[in-house]
Amino acid sequence: MTLEGARERFVRTGGIELCVAELGDPEQPTVVLVHGYPDSKEVWSEVAARLADRFHVVLYDVRGHGRSTAPAPLRGGFTLAKLTDDFLAVVDAVSPDRPVHLVGHDWGSVQSWEFVTTGRAEGRIASFTSISGPSLDHFGHWIDARVKRPTPRRVGQLLGQGAKSWYVYLLHTPALPELAWRGPLGKRWPGILKRVEKVPGGDYPTASLRSDAAHGAWLYRDNVRARLRRPRPDAYAHAPVQLITPEGDAFLSERLYDDLDRWVPRLTRRTIPAKHWVPRTRPDRLSAWIEEFVRSVEGGRPGPQATGRHAEWFGGQLVLITGAGSGIGRATAFAFAEAGARVIAVDRDAEAAARTAELSRLAGAPQAWAETADVSDEQAMEKLAERVHREYGVLDVLVNNAGIGLSGSFFATTSEDWRKVLDVNLWGVIHGCRLFGARMAERGQGGHIVNIASAAAFQPSRALPAYSTSKAAVLMLSECLRAELAARSIGVTAICPGIVNTNITSTARFAGADEAEEKRRQKNSARLYGLRNYPPEKVATAVLDAVVRDKAVVPVTPEARGAHLMSRFLPGALRRIARVEPKL
Amino acid sequence: MTTAVGSELSVEWAGFRRVQRLAYECAEAVAARLEPGVTEREAARMQRAWLRERGVRDWFHLPFAWFGDRTAFTGFRVPLQFFPTDRALEPGMPFILDMAPVYEGYTADIGYSGSLGVNPVQDRLLADLEAHRELILREVRERRPLREIYEDVDRLMVRQGYANRHRAYPFGVIAHKVDRVKQRRWSPHLFGFGTQSLKGLAADALHGHREGWSPLWSPYRFSDHPPRPGLWAVEPHLGFRGTGAKFEEILVVTDSRDPGESAFWLDDDLPHVRRWAEDK
Predict the structure, then answer these.
(1) Which residues lie below 8 Å from residue B209, measured CB to CB, with a gap of 6+?
(2) Among partner residues A362, A535, A537, which is closest to B120 by beta-carbon distance?
(3) What is the mean pLDDT of each run of 10 residues along chain B (280 residues)?
(4) What is the third-level CATH fold of B7-279?
C-alpha cells in the first residue's frame, strides 16, 4: 500500500514466511523498523519515506501480522525467543555483514529490547531506538522493586501504571479480544485512533488490522505473565540506546524508565509532547532523532551530547528567535543552543545576529544561522519565512521576542510614535505567528509559539501608555491563538517579564523629551535596570520551561508575578500605583 | 611603550614588573602541572608553595583557583564562595588562577585563564578580551570618568554576547589600586587578604573619600572621577553560560599630559598578550 518504491521479499524462518520491505541504498547504514500492536509495518510508512534517501531502510511484518504468515498453533508461537529468531533471519538476509540500527515502536520496541539484551544478537545491532515499549524484564524488575519496598510514591507509580495497562488484562481473556477485533472494535478502530490519539487518517490503519490485532493478542499471552513473574537478571543492553518517550502516552508511564540507566550503559533520553502513535503523528521529529542518533553512533560517539536544561526535549529541534541580537532574545537563543536545538537568530542588526549564531554554535547548537530582518516590515518577514521554510524547514519553536520601548505621556506620544511601537511590538508578533505558525499548523506535527509580552500587559502605568497597550495586545493575541491552535497540538505562551537588565532602555524612545533629555533618561533608566540587575538568562530559562510545560501566561521576575497577582485580586491597588510618575 | 619618565619612578615600576612577571611565571608553572583530579584547594596550595619558595612572604590576597562553572562565578552569592573548594579538574574544564603576591615590598595581582585540554568557548572568550584591554587603555588616556569606562566595558561585553562577571567581586570592581607594602616580619591575613595591603587600601579609601576619588574602580557613584595616578590592577572578567575568562594586570596611570605617557600597561610581555599576537 503506502510503502512507495519498496522492494519486497519473503524470508523463511521456522516454518513462517516474513514479508520484508526494503527502501533506499543498501550501501548505506541499515535501519530496521519494527512495528507494534495492533499494526503492520505500514505504521512506519511516513518515517521510512523520510529516512529512505539517507539510509537502507528495512521493515518487516512481525509473524501473524500484515502479509507475514502466522504460526500454527498460535499459542506458544509468539514467544520472544521465536521473535528473536525472526529478527535474526531478517537481519541475516538484508545486512549479512554489518550490524543494523534497530528502531521499535510499542510491541516492536518490547521485542527489540529482547534482541538488544540477549547474547544471541550481540554484534548484530549497532544501536537501538526505543519508542513506547519497555523491556518486559526491566518492567518486571521495576514492579518487583516497587512491591518489595512500597514507599507511598512507589505505590502511586505502581497503581498509575497498573491503571494504564487495563488493555493488557483484557487481552489475556480467552477469545473475547479476537471477537471484538473481528467485530465492532475492528470497525471502529480507525475512528478511535483519529479521535482519541489524533492520528491523521488516510491509508492507515491497513486492511489487515483485524487479523493483526487478533493474532497479536498472543504476543501478550505468550510473554507478559512469564516475563513479569521471572524477569531475566542479566538484561543489559549491548548497544547504545536512544529512548524516546511520548509525554502523553496513555499506555505507558514515564516513570517506567527511571531505573533504565542501570541496564543501559550508553543511554540517550528524548521526550516528545505527543500521544502513543508517534510514528504517525510526529514522523519529522522521529526521523530527525533516528538520523542524528544513527549518525553519531556510526561516527563512533555513543549519542548526541547536549547537556543544557531540557536537552532531552529540544535536541535537534528547529527554533527561530526574533530580536536575537541582544537581551532576552540572545539569551533565549543561547539557552536553546545549550539544549541542542538548531537555532535561527533573527535581528535587524546583521552583525549582532551573526554574533548570536556564532556563540550559539559554541554553546552547543548543532547548527545555527543568522538572518537579518525587521519584524515590522511585512515584506521582509514574508521573504524571511519563505527562505527559512525552504532552507531549514518548518519550525518547532517560534519565539517572537523583538520589541522596542516607548515611554511618555499619552498626549506627548505622537501618532508616528504609536505606529512605530505597534509596528514592532504587535505587528512583528502578528507577522511571526501568521507566517511561521501557519506552516506549523499545516504540518500538523505540533510545535510551540512563544510571544514575549511584558508585565506592562497587566500593569497599567501613566508612563508607558503605548508600550503597555502593545504588550496587552500581544498577551490577548497569544491567548486567542492558544485557543485556536490547541486542536493542532501547538502551544502558545505569553512570557511577561518585569524589569530585566537588557539594552531596551538605551534604545527606548521617551516621547515629549528633546534629544539631550532623552539621552539622559535613557542613561538613567539603563542604570536603574542595571541596579535591578535581573539577568535575561533567567527569562530564557522561563521560556524553555514554559514550552516544556505548555504554560499559557508566565510572569517572570518577582515584580511581574506580584503585578499579575494584584491584577486579579487587587486591581484597585494596581491602578493607584499606575498614577505614580516614575522619576528618571 | 614609553616607560622612562623619572628614574625614581622607573625603579619603582621595575619592581612591580618583577613581581608581576614572577606571578605570571607561577601561574604558567602551576597551570602546566594541573591534571584531571587536581582540586581547587590543591591548585591554590601549589601557587602558594611555588611563590613562597621564591621569597614571597606577604600577600595582597592569597591565591585563588576556580574550576569549571566556578570560572563564571555561577551561583555566587557570598564572598566566601570565592575561596578554593574541593572541585576537581576534569578534561576540557576551564580554570582561572588568581594570585596577588607581595615581593620585595611590591605588589602584583594577576589572573590567568586556561583550560585542561581544548575548550573552544574559553578560547573565544580569551580572544575577545583583547578588545577590552584596548578599550580600557584608550579611555583612561582620554581621562574619562572611571564609572563611564566601566559602563563602556559593560556595553562591549553585552555586545559581544557575554555577561559581566567582575560584577561579582566585592563592590563589583573591575580594578583596584595596588601599592608598595611595608615588609614586616609578621604579616597576617584577614579573610584571605594581607593586613598590610588592606591597611594601604583603607588609607587610600580615606584619602580618596576626602578628595573625591576611590581606590576601587566600580560601577557606583564613588568611581565617578577621572583616573587617579598610581598603579591599578585591572581585571575584566567575561562570562558565557558556565565558562569564564579574565586577565588581570597592572595599568600605570601618571599625571603626564602626553597621552602616551599618561597611562600604559606596566608590561606587554604577558601570556595573554603573547597569545593574541600569536593568533594574528
Answers:
(1) B222
(2) A362
(3) 62 93 96 95 96 93 95 89 94 95 93 94 95 96 94 93 91 92 83 86 88 91 92 95 94 91 94 91
(4) Creatine Amidinohydrolase (3.90.230)
